[in-house]
Backbone:
């Protein structure tokens, strides 16, 4: 039975503690009782406090009056004449209406009314338990209140997915494996501090020497490069380190193919001899080897960030997020051993 308009609806934690238990909120009440009895909280994030439970029933066939009654209590600073509503019709179990005042719906309350006799199929008390638990772990919106035949919760901005969306690999890729922003900022600062100290010369670089961008004409014995969209001035060691990283491939990345030390030394000796037009010393080759392998870290970091951006905007059928995770993982895997390399005396 609805509370008369003249009577204020209870919504404070103090009110909940001194009233008879509400089936919708009994989990929160039980937690408070357990705390009072000296029970200890288990490890983990703090559990949410009991939510307000209003003794009001919203008419399923005429939701708006009851919804606005709840809004008056949850958002008393909203002017009733300014409250806007939006009905959602996708659900087939419950009825849902959004209440808000600003056009951008930054602060929006969803009022969900349970379907008729759905308690025969759904344990509503357990639903509130789950809601609170997931919210405590940052996986659910805020639960503002419960009432006799429903609940009110925070509107989560975003797009409700359709069957055409959930097939996209970027939506089910392991985004949790992407390092946090603070970690990336720290690693970027480390790269900016250490790599310039290597004194690698700045030259005109291709900056994207993956296998498919290298064309070999066997009849003439010529090697040519294509696709210059990333070309520009850069550290010499970056271009070579980036090329060595590309030995691992793109679609099926396998860093077992990253060139071994002896292969690198041979490659680098030929490179330096072609550059200088004369024989080079082992020390010169070793020096470039150290520079290249350290700058290969910057290559991993760069293309991982590139892949993260691509995962948000590209329409190409490629799992960019997975590729970003692979490059970040390899960066952190090889960084300790690469950091230990010392320039020859």
Residues:
């Amino acid at each position: 039975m609805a509370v008369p308009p003249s009577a204020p609806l209870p919504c404070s934690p103090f009110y909940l503690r001194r009233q008879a238990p509400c089936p919708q909120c009994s989990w929160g009440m039980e937690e408070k009782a357990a705390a009072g009895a000296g029970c200890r909280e288990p490890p983990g994030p703090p559990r949410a406090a009991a939510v307000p439970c209003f003794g009001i029933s919203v008419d399923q066939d005429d939701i708006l009056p009851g919804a606005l009654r709840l809004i008056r209590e949850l958002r008393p600073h909203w002017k009733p004449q300014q409250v806007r509503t939006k009905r959602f019709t996708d659900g087939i179990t419950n009825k849902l209406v959004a209440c808000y005042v600003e056009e951008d719906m930054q602060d929006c309350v969803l009022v969900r009314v349970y379907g008729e006799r759905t308690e025969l199929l759904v344990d509503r008390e357990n639903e509130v338990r789950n809601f609170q638990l997931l919210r405590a772990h940052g996986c659910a919106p805020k639960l503002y209140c419960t009432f006799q035949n429903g609940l009110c919760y925070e509107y989560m901005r975003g797009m409700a997915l359709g069957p055409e969306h959930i097939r996209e690999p970027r939506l089910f890729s392991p985004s949790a494996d992407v390092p946090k922003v603070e970690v990336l900022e720290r690693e970027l600062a480390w790269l900016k501090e250490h790599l310039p100290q290597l004194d690698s010369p700045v030259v005109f670089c291709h900056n994207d020497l993956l296998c498919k961008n290298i064309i070999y004409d066997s009849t003439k014995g010529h090697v040519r490069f294509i696709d210059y969209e990333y070309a520009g001035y850069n550290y010499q060691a970056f271009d070579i380190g980036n090329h060595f990283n590309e030995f691992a491939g793109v679609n099926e990345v396998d860093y077992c193919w990253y060139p071994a030390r002896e292969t690198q030394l041979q490659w680098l000796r030929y490179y330096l001899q072609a550059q200088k037009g004369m024989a080079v010393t082992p020390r010169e080759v070793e020096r470039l080897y150290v520079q290249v392998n350290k700058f290969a870290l910057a290559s991993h970091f760069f293309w991982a960030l590139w892949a993260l951006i691509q995962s948000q905007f590209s329409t190409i059928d490629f799992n960019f997020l997975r590729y970003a995770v692979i490059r970040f993982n390899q960066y952190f895997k090889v960084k300790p051993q690469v950091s230990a390399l010392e320039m020859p005396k």
